[in-house]
Amino acid sequence: MKKYQLMAPGPTPVPSEVLLAMAQPIIHHRTPQYEALFVEVRAGLKKLFQTSAEVVPLACSGTGAMEAAVVNTLSAGDAVAVVRAGKFGDRWLEIARAYGLDIIDLTAPFGHTVDAARLADALKTHPEVKAVLTQHSETSTGVLHDVRAYAAVTRQHDAILIVDAVSSLGIADLPMDAWGVDLVVAGSQKGLMLPPGIGFCALNEKAWRKTKTSTLPKYYFNLTDELKFVAKNEVRFTPAVSIIVGLREALRLLEAEGLANVFKRHDRLARATRAGAEALGLELFAKHTPSPALTAIRPPTGVDSEKIVAAYSQSHNITIAGGQGEMKGKLFRLGHMGYAAEFDTIVALSALEQVLADLGQPVDFGSSVRAAQKIFVEKS
Amino acid sequence: MKKYQLMAPGPTPVPSEVLLAMAQPIIHHRTPQYEALFVEVRAGLKKLFQTSAEVVPLACSGTGAMEAAVVNTLSAGDAVAVVRAGKFGDRWLEIARAYGLDIIDLTAPFGHTVDAARLADALKTHPEVKAVLTQHSETSTGVLHDVRAYAAVTRQHDAILIVDAVSSLGIADLPMDAWGVDLVVAGSQKGLMLPPGIGFCALNEKAWRKTKTSTLPKYYFNLTDELKFVAKNEVRFTPAVSIIVGLREALRLLEAEGLANVFKRHDRLARATRAGAEALGLELFAKHTPSPALTAIRPPTGVDSEKIVAAYSQSHNITIAGGQGEMKGKLFRLGHMGYAAEFDTIVALSALEQVLADLGQPVDFGSSVRAAQKIFVEKS
């Protein structure tokens, strides 16, 4: 028996409580039952996003919510500054191009970040910039961008800061209101421990003001229209009902753990994973603040990282992820977000030791686990 | 004990087999396991849509798929003919307006349909029309439009016929290839017996040709890009994995029943429901071919139909639907699509008898059930 383990950087495992909640007979979305469900979900989302603003759920993946953020706040020809240091930074660029925006491209090599000072310079040089687009956690490289500093910089200007928090919401601290992030985009399948299928957009007042002048065409993703329904605890179009039911359970689990503890847990899992990898002589891919959501690791010299991904799957029934695009073969990624706890990390590292040995690498068995254990027994 | 029964015109109940399949541990969408799942789903969808074309699934509701159909085949300023005789016809109009299309508005009063001859005239008078937008089953009124005739008319022109089959796919016969329908839009939560959260677009060659000249902006809903991934059994963005898992089960159930039998079942349920309502002296709302998906019924004179909907819910724990928009209070709708069988209809009608009696109406108890039973015992 090889127990199946999902340890990729999303989708993440779904707790049985949530799976079973979603397996209950489906309810209709224009009923008092759904309204009661949505009232609870609506309040829970505000806590999770750390905002007094409304969080608008949409039936789509995170990419749909990214597009919603753009088409609701901008107009064709508007200038946007794109922080781009990975595949999801590329996605902002592709969306901006598809909608005819004028792009100020702030790139950094994969594994690095864009310094807030560069963003500050760009916004001074280009006062016409209407929005800054960035990730919080760049899932393709495992780097955490300094959104707090980006927000401080952007606040000096008329531009809004739009943050893709798909792999950071409920994982890394992102106090939307306290930091002054104008628009946060998220998805259901990472920190929220749900199946994919719901995206979220949360807009503060500055961002809602931008929607009034935005002329990009939209219908399904029209957030102004969505807000009217959210405010009444109603739905505009048929929602992904079963995932909303699961969302209530997931929010209850996060609430019971406490958001501060949720962030601490992810930080410990990430530190333990990094320590374990380094104990095996492996190099971390992130050359800047690593994300608590996942750890991107370079394979040993001469080893194609795709072989590591394949060995995890074939020998141990564990799904991890490789590198995307130009990073293919050059890194592998261990997810430790959402429904992930200490002994999952022990499993991931133990499997890594076996995988490396199978691939002919010298391995000091137990060394990665030892490094992780030292972090887990720290007084928090 | 009052067993909960969902008898609205969508979402429809989900079979336990499907709910439990979706409650299994979630799998990753870039793995051989997902590929094997998608291969089966892809083939099953083609059979269900009765086409050799690819069916593109999208993580969104049916409305998102309607928008995808428009933005992928048309350009701003293009003329479209909209067949409009209900709330979902209105939705085509709203999408067309949001994207700056020029609208030839072919309306009929709610409960009626638009004759194919009127469409033929419109296409002659307006040879510039690039697409005809219609529903197959108009869920708000319970009318089935004559899509076969619309297709025959549209085929004479350069225009494509785009059909919203959200509440007809797997319910009413719609042989896409045989009838020459160019683009079929559907959703997961009706005939497919799944939770809402997946939309579908199937395009024939004529429709794919239109995508090459379409300049409306799109990214998330870019079907040309989606097709490249579908053709390789891969996914472009994170799909609604759990619903795709359920989709495989649902397709297996429909395949086992046989599509011809599925259509016959819906036809019998619809005829029985209509006969039952008429046996109680009620008037059907549809003044034209009624949809096999649902039956819209006028309340007795002087009774607000919202009271009937409320009584179903409060006294019997059964969710049905009322009228939408200007039809509110003037009709109630019994769904009999998807996971619906003979004795569900018996339940719906028995409850209706009790509801009417509770509202002070004279009722010959058993009369609606007798009418339905006579249809169920017919040799098919």
Explained architecture:
Two copies of one chain form a homodimer. Chain A is built from 14 helices and 14 strands. The first copy, chain A, is of the alpha/beta class and 380 residues long. Chain A has two domains: 5-11 and 259-376, Aspartate Aminotransferase, domain 1 (Alpha-Beta Complex); 16-256, Type I PLP-dependent aspartate aminotransferase-like (Major domain) (Aspartate Aminotransferase, domain 2, 3-Layer(aba) Sandwich). In chain A, helix 11 (259-279) packs parallel to helix 13. The radius of gyration of chain A is 21 Å and the shape is globular. At the A-B interface, helix 1, helix 3, helix 4 and helix 10 of A face helix 1, helix 3, helix 4 and helix 10 of B.
Named at the architecture level, the CATH assignment of the largest domain in chain A is: 3-Layer(aba) Sandwich
Count, helices of chain A: 14
| Name of the level-1 CATH class of the largest domain in chain A | Alpha Beta
Helix-and-strand structural type of chain A = alpha/beta
End-to-end C-alpha gap of chain A:
35 Å
* CATH homology-level superfamily of the largest domain in chain A: Type I PLP-dependent aspartate aminotransferase-like (Major domain)
What number of structural domains do the residues of chain A give?
Answer: 2
Cross-sheet strand order for the largest sheet of chain A = 2-10-9-8-5-3-4
Oligomer: homodimer
